[in-house]
Amino acid sequence: TENKVADALSRHPVAGNDPSFPEVLRDVCNYHNYSKEELAAWQQGDSTIREPLLQLQGLRPDDGQSNETLDKFVLKNGVLYRKGDAHQRKFRLVVPSLLRRGILSNCHDTPDSGHFGIAKTTEKVSRNYWWPGLSLSVKSYVAACSFCQKNKSKTSTPVGKLHPIPPPTRMFSLIGIDHLGPFRLTTSGNRYLLVPIDYLSKWVIAKPVASTAAALIRTFLETEVIAQHGYPHRIITDRGTGFTAKLLQNQLQQWGINNSFITTEHHQSNGQITHATLAINTAKQESTKASPFEIVYGRQPEFPSERQFPWPPEDKESLQHFLHRVTRLRKKIQWRLVVQQRQVKERHDKKRKKSPQFSVGDTVLVARTLRFPQLTQKLLPKFIGPFQIAEKRSSLIYLVETLPAARKKMWHRFPAHVNQLKLFKTPNEVDWPSLGPTEA
Ligand SMILES: [Zn+2]
């Protein structure tokens, strides 16, 4: 599909990129299980991270900083780890420069990462890993990801912005249910996705269905929601015919479930929902400051890519401690949702930002104008390009044209409104901190 192509293009070339070499074999050859000897040697040879390693080995005379190092870092089997906070792995691997790009790619552009933004990617990386300047690395990696640049909207509006609903006290008691689509027909005959989201944990389920019919919603509620999570008190839906149908309403009444209707503009759930609910359920949500997975299971998920590194064993948590911790976490999340709703309201009242300005020669992406937004929005890249700015006609209108190297017999030159434009960034090796300043 189109997405796959764009995704492949956004990856950086790997060593041994011989097109005649079978892909499967190449993947096997590129897969490493890193040994502790190898990691330790790379850490010590890497000037950006060797200092704490040497200090912990007692190879540096006391200079007053040692205590700080001892607080933050720890040596396990000769490998350097940095201590994590409550949401992170207890001992996070201190990553040598040469492995950083691979980790960033694992945490950003794989299907279970879903091309999330800077904040979520940073959180995902720092859950298991640390290096000086980590947030800078993530920032430049994500900013230069061409898939993201072409597919993300300029501003993302938080879901639920206009309809603040008081957060529930229990998980899976208040559930929003939405249809996404229609999409291109799949081989199994499905055109829509039924997507319920739990209002407390933000846990998302996505189920492909053939139509928006009431019977399908009923079966779905029975098998995927009630059978797994119990009876919700209330569901929140739009006024789609499937939801308002007598068949469903009668069934809901029997189940004792209330149905609130809201009029939504279809939230731009940025199409990612179709790729991986796992990515959504395991990413930190801005509103709760935790991942749905963490709220539901009380622990962080583990991804296959983490299994290539050795991790020191952690103390087993007692059941009592676990329950106490999870209960406290869920209480805290309820409170955060209340605070966050207030902040969203405040932000809503603030003025819009000023339009950006571009110069002749700047490379830009241009937002696609959609003639049939309902049907095509989720399947096409939101931006096309890159183009270059040929002329500034006014503070709002720019003339853009195909880059000289991309010109064929027919090429484009057209006026675009400043709101349609955003700068196209290219990966810049200078952004990769090799000797950069340390950062907490
Ligand atoms: Zn991306």
Describe this structure in words.
- This protein has helices at residues 2-10, 23-30, 36-45, 50-56, 66-72, 97-108, 118-128, 134-143, 146-151, 214-229, 241-244, 246-255, 277-282, 292-297, 319-349, 373-376; strands at residues 73-76, 79-83, 91-94, 129-130, 174-180, 192-198, 207-209, 234-237, 258-261, 363-367, 383-392, 397-402, 413-417, 421-423.
- It has 440 residues and is an alpha+beta fold.
- It folds into four domains: 2-151, Endonuclease III, domain 1 (Orthogonal Bundle); 174-269, Ribonuclease H-like superfamily/Ribonuclease H (Nucleotidyltransferase, domain 5), CATH 3.30.420.10; 284-349, no CATH class; 363-423, no CATH class.
- The strands form three sheets. It has a five-stranded mixed sheet, with helices on one face. A five-stranded antiparallel sheet has the order 13-12-11-10-14. Strands 1-2-3-4 form a four-stranded mixed sheet.
- A hairpin with an 8-residue loop joins β6 (192-198) and β7 (207-209).
- α7 packs across α8 and α10 (214-229) runs parallel beside α12 (246-255).
- The radius of gyration is 25 Å and the shape is globular.
- Mean pLDDT is 77; it is low at 1-31, 155-163, 265-275 and 434-440.
- Zinc ion is lined by residues 108-109, 115, 145, 147-148.
- GO terms for molecular function: nucleic acid binding; RNA-directed DNA polymerase activity.
- Residues 163-273 form the Integrase catalytic domain.
- One of its GO terms (biological process) is DNA integration.
- InterPro entries: Integrase_cat-core (IPR001584), Integrase_H2C2 (IPR041588), Retrovirus_Pol_polyprotein (IPR050951), RNaseH-like_sf (IPR012337), RNaseH_sf (IPR036397).
